[in-house]
Write a structure and sequence with these properties.
7-stranded antiparallel sheet; mainly beta; 3 domains; 291 residues; 3 helices; Immunoglobulin-like
Length: 291
Amino acid sequence: MAEKNITILQKNAEGTLDTFYPKTIAAQVTESSTQQFVSAAKKTQYDENTVYTNATAIVEPTGQIAPGDTFNEVPVNQMLTKILYPYIPPTISGTPSTASRVVEKGVTLTIDNVTANVGKKSEAITKVELYNGATLVEAKTDSVAAGGQFTFSNAVSLSADATLKVKATDAKPTVVEAEVGTYTFVYPFYHGTVAAGAAVDGATIAAMLKDVSEKGDKTYTFNLTDNCAVFAYPKAYGALKAIVDRHGFDNLPNFTQSTVSVTGADSTAQDYYVYVKEPATATDFELTCKF
């Protein structure tokens, strides 16, 4: 026999009739997505355990929870994530369109684009940026949340020492960065040959083989036919300690050192140390100049 709802009339203290409805049993509740039957025990569990509140500051770090943190009605699922999953910052690397790192002073280096590779970790990415030193070149904020590969198409023109960096910011927020490249502008090294007894001036040096590189030991090969090997570099680098051949013999005593003014690509006159060897005849004569 089907259960029925019962309405009961009863007198109250004033002698008038009140309508009394008996308790509704679970089977009489029509459940929907917005209306569910919940027992008293379940309701208590829901009320007391769905959020976490504690005004006492944390002393020791745990997972993503830092010393000093307190909690005010934080959802339990968020608390468990903070405890079980330590925060991991994003990763980033960058690649320029040109691999050049050492450039001759007076020459402008143009980097057409830079590619950044960003790895999302604990938090969504909010911003990816390209910097030239402290100067922002370009920033991306659209469609960066999941990380990935991003190309900065704003060209960068360099004419002096510079460092390019890419940066990524996540929702924490944490900023990570990576060098794309450090660019150094230098005056070049020169090497070549001159006839015995010939004058060696700035124009002669500038017409020789050019080596755009930073200060350091250099090894060059000369083919000599009763003429002189020449080695020249910016005077600011200091005097050579030795000029060694492939057999380990120091040829420095056989060279004459002088100072010559050489006009650089930036149209400025630069003092160069010039080393000229006494005349010799040799094929594939390898010399290493040591600082």
